[in-house]
Amino acid sequence: MIKRFDNINFKKSIKEIIFINVGMALVVCGMYFFLMPNNLATGGANGLAIVINRFIPSFPVGVIMLMINGILFIIAFLAIGKAFGAKTIYASLGVSFMIFILEKVIPITKPLTGEIFLELIFGILISGVGMAIVFNQNASTGGTDILAKILNKFFHIDLGKGVLICDLCITIMAIVAFGLKLSMYAMLGVIINGFLIDALLEKINMYKEVTIISQEYEKIRKYIITELERGSTIYSAKGGFSNNTKNVIVVVIKKRDFPRLNKYVYSIDNDAFITVSNVHEIFGEGFRKISC
User: Fold this and answer.
1) Angle subtended at Cα 275 by Cα 231 and Cα 219, rounded to the nearest 5 degrees
2) What is the pLDDT of residue 292?
3) Smallest Cα–Cα separation from 74: which of 131, 138, 146, 21?
4) What are the two backbone dihedrals, phi and then psi, of residue 233, each rounded to the nearest 5 degrees?
5) Which of 31, 150, 164, 214 has its CA 20 to 30 A from that of 189?
6) Predicted model pTM
């Protein structure tokens, strides 16, 4: 049992690292190829680094990001915990290092297309998806993401909204560095990014709550445990029309598992009655830990 538990934790850790790396790569691509060449300071350590780089061009953006994140790492460890802090250090250092390498290997001196609005949208969409993936692994890419996580933990503000609040402060600072026009574009990007992250996280964390009424409830219960590796709740209910007592199974599963369960249930009981609801917040054993 202990060996199986360790194996599950190892697989979970590998999965987390893979997803964090994918998220990091997307964040870097969005920032470096689309936002940075247009001086779009759309918040975060990167946005603040772009503003500082404007006044101190001898300091590369990647180096400035490392300095900013170094201060915020301490805050992450103290306010949120070691697990979040460690993964955030890994992600933020990775993002800063990738940008630093790209600045040396593929220096970009001008925007790719010259269409600032087009590049803003592409940059925000790509980096926003990456940030949502990293957030979903209980990590962040550093910068104001850490502050957003703190707001989420202590004030229960949605992560996207927290990012929006923090990043708006940086876009206001960008007015001094780049003027009103670029800052307004950046502010638009910050707003889109905030809502995009919340929408993506909601979609990623959506589960299906399935209620099944069937005479073959015992077979279905075993299928859920052995094939879907999930628990379930079974209770007795009386039909309002038939007045007969029947067993009801309630299970919460991932979206991708529902078609399999649905197919199996109807393969053994054509008369089964199934209702399905979308669930966005689940806490407890087998899901996210309950946090205060």
Assistant:
1) 45
2) 46
3) 146
4) -115, 135
5) 150
6) 0.70
Chain position carrying tokens 């960008």? 174
Residue with tokens 């962040």: 140
Quick one: tokens of 97?
């290092």
Mean per-residue pLDDT pooled into runs of 10, the chain (292 residues): 53 84 93 88 76 83 79 76 74 84 88 90 93 85 77 80 80 82 85 85 86 93 91 88 88 91 93 90 66 50
Q: Where are the domains of the chain?
A: 2-204, 207-279
Q: Is the dihedral of CA 126, 132, 138, 144 positive or negative?
A: positive
| CATH fold for domain 207-279 | Alpha-Beta Plaits (3.30.70)
Q: How far apart (Å, rounded) are the C-alpha atoms in residues 271 and 41? A: 58
Q: Which two tokens stand for residue 2?
A: 């202990």
